Amino acid sequence: MSKSSSSAAPYLLSVLRIIAAFLFIQSGTMKLFSFPIGMPEGVTAELWSQTWFGGVLESFGGALILIGLGTRFVSFILSGMMAVAYFQFHQPQALWPVANGGIPAILFCFVWLYFAAAGGGPWSIDAKVPGVTKATTST
After folding, report:
1. What are the tens digits of pLDDT across the range 62-84?
2. Which of 22, 42, 49, 91 sees the fewest Cβ atoms within 10 Å?
């Protein structure tokens, strides 16, 4: 591996975190605010329902990950939420993820699990706070 590609890795970790969080937030704002589009039923999630709690975690947890604040802890919580979402809502519909619509849930589950282990990268608030464990970048 060349020196230039390995030195870009921590920054690409931050880029992945930002893009994944931006996409994830949209799932929450759809449920809570019908933005940028509404849910399939054309309504917002009922207050205090399981869907509403999911929307809160997606919107506000996603926002924390977007800025890189509490990345490891929030990512761990969101990874678990996505595992539950897959097994509760997608897997009972069909065996294969492509048939049950669960591919995004699986991908987000493992992306957030990765960030729980790796941290937010150099372009995060966590990286600027003393005492926060940094991800290792050595190979």
Report:
1. 999 999 999 999 999 999 999 99
2. 42
Q: Which two tokens stand for residue 1?
A: 């591996």
Strand (E) or helix (H) holding 20? helix 3-33
DSSP 75-115: HHHHHHHHHHHIIIIIGGG-SSHHHHT-HHHHHHHHHHHHH
Distances (CA, A) of 107 to 24, 44, 85, 101, 112: 11, 25, 12, 12, 9
Could you give the 3-state DSSP secondary structure of residue 52? helix
Residues 55 and 65: their CA atoms lie apart, in Å, by 15
- Gap between the Cα atoms of 81 and 117, Å rounded: 16
Rounded CA-CA distance 29/33 in Å is 5
